[in-house]
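User: Hey, my collaborator sent me this sequence without any context and asked if I could get a structure. I don't really work with proteins. Can you help?
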Amino acid sequence: MRPLRGRSGMLGHVKRSAGQSTANRGRGRRVGRYTLGARVYDVVSLEWPVYRPGRLAGIRLLRLRPGDRVLDIGCGTGLNFPAMQAAVGPTGAIVGVDQSEQMLARARARVRRHGWRNVDLVCADAADLNGAGPMSVEPMTADPFDAALSTFALSIIGDGAGAWRAAVQATRPGGGLAVVDLALPTGRWAVLAPLARLACFTGGVDLDRKPWRWVARDTSQVTQLSLRGGHIRVAAGSRPHPPAAGT
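Assistant: No problem. I've predicted the 3D structure and written it out in structure-token form, which is a compact way to encode the shape of the chain:
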């Protein structure tokens, strides 16, 4: 697989205009909170007791096969990599994209520790994977991915909708797309809503975004799951094939 290179460092190093909107400043604060937790993310993120089932469900719904190429949007410290490696095997490939160099440093350590030779890590804005902006990455769509996944990231990434569009564009027709993200728990789990809200704020999550809805809108053969009283939302589908010529 051709190496992929980001053209710049983390998003925070990009100069912004004096007229930057309040919304963009809010996005920057969310990303800042996400980045600051890099060193302790795996310890304090409640991965094993709370969030791992959603991560595994999203990967399972992609129906990955040996040799598949997978794009991990907002890969963070690489917590998805072990399960994806088990599915695609050494003949497959994983490309992890994250705009936090601090998170990617932890991901690189994970890759070295396991001796994985089929993982590329790219420091870039996931919404600009193939654009001409300062954060763009050498074109990925020349060799489309078999699947793309984002776990607990599209509600944090500044332009989450743009990142989702880029993931769809980078995936081959018929390929799998999955989103795992967060909402406040309901029903008998609602008693934990204040704690969930605090955890989401600390992690920089925009609870109003609801990115799993984009999967239902933009893909076919959609499967949706609700875990932990609705706190974890999982949605997966396939990128539709383009209409046949003449139809």
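In plain terms: Helices lie at 22-36, 41-44, 47-61, 81-88, 101-114, 160-170, 193-203, 212-218. You can pass these tokens on to your collaborator as they are.
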